[in-house]
Design goal:
It contains three helices and no strands. By secondary structure, the chain is mainly alpha-helical. The radius of gyration is 20 Å and the shape is rod-shaped.
């Protein structure tokens, strides 16, 4: 449920609803087609961010082009340092 309430996903859904209401009674023009294309891209990016966040929280690898990737790498480095310290203490 936490992933479904992300701001990017909610924003994409709300803009889609607004776009749907606005285009209900108008003709399809090239501007309307571009607006729907833009909404589709935004929605796909929001879903991708939710998927990447979920994968990172589960400890699964995230693709290198994801904004979550750098945070995941930093967390791994911290974990490796912590494990190295624990290994030194146990010796």
């Amino acid at each position: 449920m936490n992933y479904l309430t992300s701001t990017g996903l909610l924003g994409a859904i709300m803009s889609g609803v607004s776009l749907l209401r606005g285009s209900r009674e108008t003709k399809i023009t090239w501007r309307a087609a571009l607006a729907w294309l833009s909404w589709g891209i935004s929605f796909a990016l929001a879903i991708g961010a939710v998927i990447d966040t979920r994968r990172a929280r589960q400890g699964r690898p995230v693709s290198k082009d994801s904004p979550v990737y750098s945070k995941q790498q930093k967390d791994r480095q911290k974990q490796e340092k912590h494990l190295a310290k624990e290994l030194k203490r146990s010796r």
